[in-house]
Amino acid sequence: MPYATSTLWAAIQYLGPREEAPEHRHSQNAFRFVLEGEGVWTVVDGDPVAMRRGDLVLTPGWRFHGHRNATDTPMVWLDGLDIPFAHHTDTGFFEFGPDEVSVEDTPELSRSERLWAHPGLRPLSEIGSLTHSPIAAYRWEHTDRALSEQLKLESEGHPATRGPGHAAVRYVNPATGGDVMPTLRAEFHRLRSGGRTAERREVGSAVWQVFAGEGRLTLNGVETRVGRGDLFVVPSWTALRLEAETELDLFRFADTPIFERLSLDRVSEEGR
User: Fold this and answer.
1) Are residues 30 and 227 in contact, defined by beta-carbon separation less than 8 angstroms?
2) For domain 9-137, which architecture applies?
3) 3-13 pLDDT, tens digit each
């Protein structure tokens, strides 16, 4: 589904064994959320970034990037971009780089992670404000641990979640504390088995990826069962409620930063 909403693009990319995607850049902001596989490398402005299931990998607008699969197995990821928004505002530009991916190094950590990915610590050598996150990859092990600790705290009588049995985190730009990119918000949600979210409406649209588990979603009163690998779209001001039949993990991205900057954001949530 390319134009998932009037502002968001969502697509599934499959990179076959030993396949390369040539380097290119575009003004649209983009990310890859890895669904299956490992051993693939994205190179972002010459910085090689390892990709594994559950990782969120950023390619901000106008940064050269390409992909290389160094394994005999495929990789699958969710591509999220603001292509429709760029189209509506006539700000979409594209150009190719080298015919082949320019870097073949395969370090454990990218340079961006070595510099920026330390909790609560910011390098003084890079003190300027950045409109996008300088971290190339947000690793699954950190996301998983943060969600697990939220639910443990709740069970110990110290609620730290959005609601009973519902843990959630937002990927943030460590330079500003804001969203990872100026037009895209990225989050991860986890519900305990039997957990249920409050019904929520908000201005702006979102795409959800079921990363693991099974459950039900209700959109404007219409119920649908979902499971691992499913994608669903929530249009602007559509009432959403989630219920987990097993532990349910979901990745979410949205266009909320656009509407916040225009002072057009609005949220209504059951019980608030």
Assistant:
1) no
2) Sandwich (2.60)
3) 899 999 999 99
